[in-house]
Automatic annotation (TrEMBL):
Keyword terms: DNA-binding, Transcription, Transcription regulation
The HTH gntR-type domain, residue ranges: 18-85
PANTHER family the UniProt entry points to: GLUCONATE OPERON TRANSCRIPTIONAL REPRESSOR, TRANSCRIPTIONAL REGULATOR, GNTR FAMILY
Domain of life (superkingdom): Bacteria
Stated name of the protein: GntR family transcriptional regulator
InterPro entries according to UniProt: GntR_C (IPR011711), TF_FadR/GntR_C (IPR008920), Tscrpt_reg_HTH_GntR (IPR000524), WH-like_DNA-bd_sf (IPR036388), WH_DNA-bd_sf (IPR036390)
Key word Transcription regulation present: yes
A family per Pfam: GntR
PROSITE patterns: HTH_GNTR
Amino acid sequence: MMKNAERKPKDETPMRKKRGALMVYEKLREDIQWLRIDPGSALDEVALSKTYDVSRTPVREALLLLENEGFVQFLQNRTSIVAPLSLHNQAAFLDTFILLSRGLIRAATMRGTSQKARMETLVREYADKLEADDVEGAFRAQLELNRSIAKEAGNRFLQKYFLEAQDASVRMKLLYFFPHLAQEQKKEAVARLQAIVDAMVASDPDAGDAAVRDAILFEAKVIQGGLAPRFGHEMSIVQEEAR
């Protein structure tokens, strides 16, 4: 009877490499999303490998994943940079985001919610953080509220694409929404979120549809206002005649 061949130790290198690439991807994605690294900044593979204590191979793999999501851009000279934030396609993005949000909220309200207390807590947290000028804290509360609603929808396709679209909007809102949200607009921002939660609790699809649409249009209005000229249109460029 032949003896079973002695098993060779399993090569764990691919698994370690995968974990390394995933770790770099998650940390670098977080830093890019939350503007800890400015749009347009160069991404040096050697420096990143030292920062994350990995070889350059996991760094390259992470950069490729981030390029696929639009967070990283490779230049012709093979240099990688944080993708600049362009506004040329924001109208198309907002159309897509509104459509996904309306579909998601309709699905969620039709199913009802078991997270009333959790959602109410997140709205209060959003309001408190806004009042304290803690933009990141407020935004994280809003994102968590949206993730809770996405889960309640019970539709993995809507959830997947909605969350991807939401992630794509983080930098835009950090740059163009929260910095331009006037003090008198903060209460309206909170009320918009509360209206969404109220529709969820009431299991009212039509109210949810209107609430999420109006909330996104409100944010778009603030963003547009933030991009408006401040003083150039009011200045006179005509030289006054000497008396």
